[in-house]
Design brief:
This protein is α+β, with helices and mostly antiparallel strands. The chain is built from 5 helices and 6 strands, in the order E-H-H-H-E-E-E-H-E-H-E. The longest helix has 21 residues. It is globular, with a radius of gyration of 17 Å.
C-alpha cells in the first residue's frame, strides 16, 4: 500500500519518516492496531461477512462497513476499526466548547483517471479561519478494504495534528476564504468518490 500526506510524509507504510504522534500511530498502533493490522483485519472480516451472507445469517443486501463493527476479538476498544474515533470525539468537544465551528471535520475523496484517490479535509475555526489537509492513496485490490476510508482517516489525523500545532503556536491557521478556494478547485480536478461534510460545500 502506498499513500501520501499533505507534506509527502508517507511514501511507503513500512518506512515511517517521523516519530511524532499521530503519524506514529499508523505504524506503531492507534487504538490497539497499526495500519497493516487494520487492513488485514478488514480483509478477513469482509471474507467472514460474505460467508455469513451466503449462509443466510446476514441479509444479502447488507453492506459491509468496518466502522460499524462494535467489537473484535482481542481488541477491547469499542468500534476498533474506527481509528480516528478518539480524535473525532475530541473535535466534538472542541465544538461544544466553542473552539471550532464544525462538530466533525469535512472530508472529500476524489478519484483521478487512473482510479487513484485524492483527499481534502478541512475544519472551520472561529474568526474566519480554519485548517486544511490533503492526502491520497493508490488504488488497491483488497476485498472489503475501501482505500477511500483510509484516505479519510488520514485526513482526520492530519487535521488534528494541525490543530495541535496551532494551539501550540507552531503554525498559523489558514483563512477560510483560502480553504474555500482550494476545495472548489479540488472539486473541479477530481469527481467526488466519497466523503462526509458539514453544511454546503464551498
Amino acid at each position: 500500500i502506498q499513500c501520501y500526506a499533505s507534506r509527502n510524509i508517507w511514501r511507503h507504510l513500512e518506512e515511517p519518516k517521523r516519530s511524532d504522534w499521530p503519524r506514529r500511530g499508523f505504524y506503531e498502533g492507534i487504538r490497539g492496531m497499526d495500519l497493516l493490522t487494520w487492513t488485514v483485519e478488514q480483509w478477513f472480516l469482509a471474507e467472514a461477512f460474505q460467508k455469513a451472507q451466503e449462509e443466510g445469517s446476514v441479509a444479502p443486501d447488507e453492506v459491509f462497513d468496518p466502522f460499524n463493527l462494535v467489537a473484535s476479538a482481542g481488541n477491547n476498544n469499542p468500534f476498533p476499526l474506527w481509528l480516528s474515533l478518539q480524535i473525532r470525539t475530541a473535535i466534538a468537544q472542541m465544538y461544544e466548547g466553542g473552539n471550532c465551528l464544525d462538530p466533525v471535520p469535512s472530508c472529500l475523496v476524489g478519484e483521478d483517471k487512473s482510479g487513484h484517490y485524492h483527499g481534502i479535509g478541512y475544519l472551520r475555526l472561529p474568526g474566519g479561519m480554519g485548517v486544511l489537509a490533503r492526502s491520497g492513496a493508490k488504488r488497491q485490490h483488497f476485498r472489503g478494504v475501501r482505500v477511500s476510508d483510509l484516505v479519510e482517516e488520514i485526513l482526520v489525523f492530519e487535521i488534528w495534528e494541525q490543530i495541535q500545532d496551532i494551539m501550540a503556536g507552531r503554525r498559523k491557521a489558514a483563512t477560510y476564504q483560502h480553504i474555500e478556494g482550494v476545495v472548489r478547485q479540488f472539486r473541479v480536478d477530481y469527481p467526488i468518490f466519497s466523503g462526509s461534510w458539514v453544511g454546503e460545500l464551498p
